[in-house]
Fold:
Amino acid sequence: MRPAGPAKTGRHGRAKRLALLCSLYFVQGLPFGFQAKALPILLRETGMSLAAIGFAGALSLPWLLKILWAPLVDRPILPGLPRRKGWILPTQGLLALTCLGAGWVDPVTQLPLLLALVGVMNLFAATQDVAVDGLAVDILGEDELGPGNAAQVVGYKLGMLTGGGLLVWLALDWLGWSGVFFAMSLLITGVGICVLFTSFPNSSIQAPDDSGPGLREIYAVLRKSATTRTGALVLAMTATYKMGEAIIDRMFTPFLIDQGFTAMEIGQWVGSIGMGCSIAGSIVGGLAAMRTPLPRALLVAAILRLIPLAAETLLPLTTPTASLVIAITSAEHFFGGALTTIMFATMMSSVNRRIGGTHFTALAVIEVLGKSPGAWASGMIADQWGYFHAFAIGLLLSLGFVGLAIAHERTARRSKDEESRLHAPPPETVWVGETPEKE
Structure:
C-alpha cells in the first residue's frame, strides 16, 4: 500500500505541481527524442546498415542501469537543498554542457564521438529521471495520478517532439545538425534557471533529518511488492506493454526511407504530427485514468492500440502513400500515448512513497529491459526476414500484453468485490413466529 499523499492545496497548487513536473520531463525528452527519431535518419543517410541502426538503441543503456545508482539519488547530496532539487539541478547543468559539446562535433567525420556524447546525455537524463520520478511520487496524491502522469508523459513527449521532430525539421532546413544540439542546450539551460528559482514542494514522507532509505529497506519493500498477484501482474505488464511496439517503431523510419520518402517528410509525419497525436492521446489517457478504474482503462487502451499496429504490419504488403502513412502513424501514436499514461499511473499506484524514486525507477528499468532487446534486434530481424515479419512479431507481442491486461482487470475486480463483502453491513436478522425478548 502507498502511504497517503500530500494534503490537497487547491487547483492552483495542483497546476503548479503539474507544470513543474511537465517542464522537468520535457528536459529529459530532448536527448531521447533525438536518439529515437532523429539519429536513425542521420545514420541511414550516412549509409549505416539496419542492424547497426537497431543496435544504436543501446545508447539508451543508462536508462536500464539507473537502478544501480537510484538508491543514492533517493538521498540528499547538496547541503541546503531539498534532496530532489539537489540532484535535478546538477544533472540538468551537465546535460546542457554535453549538448553544447556535441554541437561542435562533425557527425560525418566524428560519428563515434557523437554517439558517445549521445550516450552521456542519456546518462545525465536518466539520473535526473530518478530524482524527478521520486518528486512525482512525493507530491502527487492518489486522485492526481491521472493528471500527474499525463503531465509526465506529455512533458516528456513534448521534449521528444522538440528534439526528434521540430529541431530535425529546422536542422534539415537551415540549422544544421550542430544547431540541433545548441538549441537543446539552450532549452535545458532555460528550464534549469526556472527550476533554480522554484520552491519544491516538501516530501510528505522524509523528515528533515532523514538521510533516506537504506539498501536493506529498499530490498525488503521491492521484494514484498513482487510477491502479491497484483504486484506480479504489474511487473509483467510493465515489462511487456511496449515490447512489440518498440520493434515496429525502431524499423518504421528506415522502412519509410527505403520506400522513397524524404527525411523531411518523415520528420514531419513521425516526429511532428505523430508526436502531436501521441501528446493528445496522453492527455486523453490521463482523463481516462481519472474517471475510469485504472485496470479497465488499461485494458481498453491496449485493445485499441492493436488496430494501428495491425495496419502498420500490413503496410509493407502495399504501396504506401503519404496520406496512408500519416493516418496510420497518427492513430498508432494516439493510442500508444493513451496507453503509456495509463500504464505509468498503474505503476505509480503500486509504488511505496518512502522509496519513491528507487521503487518507480525499478519499474521503469523493467520497462526499458522489456522493450530494449526487441528494439535492438529489430534491424537483424528486418534484414533477415523483411519488414513485414518484423512488424508481425511486434503485433503478436502486443496481443500478448492484452492477455495480461485482461488478467489484471479480473484480479482487480475480484479484489474490489472481496473488499466490498468485507465492509458490507451484516444482514438483518429476521425473526419468524415470535419476537425476541428485550434484555
